[in-house]
Hints:
Elements: H1 3-10, H2 24-38, H3 41-44, E1 55-61, E2 66-73, E3 90-97, E4 108-112, H4 121-135, E5 138-142, H5 163-187, E6 192-197, H6 199-211, E7 216-220, H7 227-231, H8 241-250, H9 252-259, H10 264-272, H11 276-282, H12 294-298, H13 317-334, E8 349-353, H14 367-370, E9 375-379, H15 383-389, H16 391-409
Helix pairs in contact: 2-5, 5-6, 8-9, 8-13, 10-11
Amino acid sequence: MSKFDQIYRSILLSKFFTKGWGNPDLLQKIIHFRRQYLQNPENSSTLVSANVKLNIEKEKALADGIILEGSFTSPMTPHFYNYLPKESHVARFQIILPKTWKGQGKPVCIHLAGTGDHFYWRRRVLFAWPLLKQYGIGSIILENPYYGLRKPKDQVRSRLHNVTDLFLMGGCLALESSVLLRWCEQQGFGPLGLSGISMGGYMASIAASVWQKPVALIPCLSWTSASVVFTRGVMSGSIPWPLLEKQYLNDKVYSEIGNQLSIPEERMQTSASSSPSQSQLLASSKLTSRVMNSAQLHTLPTKNILTVEKDRQPLSSLRQETVRFMKLIMDECTHLANFPRPVDCRSIISVLATNDAYIPRDGLIDLPALWPGMEVRVLKRGHIAAFLTAQDQFRKAVKDALDRQYVASL
């Protein structure tokens, strides 16, 4: 496990979910919405109208390309109007296109933000301009809800107030990405892709699952579920566990919600004995990607680190219940086993870090087992070091995945 990741996280003072779980009624509404719409491709397609109007508000021509900025009403707004901050009701984006297309088709990739990536500049500098100049690939940079111009006035930087804020963010990004992908189709762009680093990788994976049309997907420094980020990775040290414990103990509705949920790995293990397909899925060492198989992934050094107790003392029973509830709701809303499989997994390239202390992978079903045919590329470093030193490899994965999608579309 990367010591640099642990040291880097330890010097950051930011805390997440400082107001707790969020409204329990909202949490139940989110779970119902995910199951009814995001888990069901036929229903999710009804949420994104073909007539959604994109308002192009700025256009600037530069020597290397064209920059457009615009907005549209988020498809999530009608469903969560009273829960989403008003600043997040409107989706905002920046588009960077070449003046003339070269090579195969008119490739465009949507880049979703990682934690702390506010506004457009970081993805524009690290992804959009290099992709355009080197490969002739256009980019769309979508602003996260709760970030940048969509950030509530009372929120400090990236410190989401409630756990439910993260789930609302994910739902917004999934449906807003569908709006942008549909717009790209209408403009004659393609092949199309979705990418993101860390949290952006999770969001891009969910967006590709919800889209349910062929699309290139490049999730970098993410994996099967975000639950491990907040319960076992170094980010778990940024969670106000005493507050969450108190709320969990004082309101029985949280435990009632938890009783209705399950952890996918446990669910699959239970059904493996009676279901050949589930047994085969769990025998993930037999399911291979193009670069490395699932058994090899389990041999990578991803040591268990419960940083919720820095002194490594045994967890109290209440803490154990609270951490398990966090895992249950995080798995419910982010575990990719709870979403449809992308249409064409051959155009998926995941880039992971072997010593990632933010996203320990042991205990999770491997992504290639869920999405057979995808490719996994490995960086022998930690999460932060990979972000700082592997941007060229992330961009190359975008190029390769879009090329595969182009070939598949012929």
